[in-house]
Design brief:
The protein has 393 residues and is α/β, with parallel strands linked by helices. 36% of the residues lie in helices and 18% in strands. The chain is built from twelve helices and 14 strands.
Amino acid sequence: MKKLLLLTASIATAILSGCATHPPAGFQSFQAKDLSALTRSKEYQQKTNNFFIINDSSGSMTETYMNGGLAADPAAIKLEIEKELLSRMNKTIPNITLNSGLRSFGFGKCTSIKGTKLNQATESYSKSAFNAAIESLACGSGGSPMDKTIDHTQNDLAANTGTTALIILSDGFELDRSPAPSAQALKARYGDNVCIYTIWVGNPSDAEGRTTLLNLSNLGACGFSTDAASISSPTGMAKFVEKVFFKKLFPMAEGDADLDGVFDSKDKCPTTPLGATVDVQGCWIIKGINFDTAKHNIKSQYYHLLDNAATVLKRNPGLTIEVQGHTDNVGSDKYNLGLSDRRANSVKTYLSNKANGRASLTSHGYGESRPVATNETANGRAQNRRVQLKVRK
């Protein structure tokens, strides 16, 4: 209903003013990181042969983006954020052999009366051709038939050989129907030859849409979910491109038994379950969660990170996990020990509810005794106010 109101309002504005276009946002210049070394390195191998974009061009994408990560003047609408992210990805992809394609969804002049538009049929990738496809995303209008668009994408991918990265950009807001059945049908047809990656381009009020996109990437098994702010910087975009298009190989002398990306010789947590996010020591960390000083409550903005961890637990039933709480060095040893216990218990309670009893969870606080960063800086102390998950068996 809200999308229909947005479309009606935009038409009314156009009639009254004669011009309802949003002034184009000016983004800060973007200097892409050079990833050409990956194409020459014996440690990396290209894993993706094709990428196909599904872009949300519905009415809600005309709302002003207010979630950080991309500074623009004037403030950008969500559609402009999507286009800027695709442009930054295009600049970051190194010189490798690929095919690319792009399809958008919405209703009205911005896509079609059918609700979906093939902006670029799958073709040999070039930066100029893909840039033209990005520029064809002229506006946003109407509802959100993401499910129908994924159905069409099944046929769009039919001629592809090798592995395809299906990258979906959306706010996940008030979709016409759940896209999950369509994604399941696509996976049933293509199996591991298609990996689903989702990029949430939403505002805090669209948080439910983020969960929808996370669930889509989980259906793909080999993909992952991220958000606009996380991949907007040169470093963030470089990491995204690397993870989507390349896999890291290991020298024969080194092994990685739990496949977490950390060599066994350096892995202090060698039994981490598949899909878990690890730190440099190979230990499962719920990366991104920060507790305020002297606080143990979990902020709602971090729920999606815990949901990811719960998904890993559900995929690996029967695990025994110790939830470990940690603090910085502000306060007494005794106080910090109790605080770390409370932090660990908060996370344990959340995961217990979300994992539906698939794992045995205990909690333990270690106070300030196990820092992973310096306590001399605010950033270091923030990293130490953390929670880790230890596989006991």
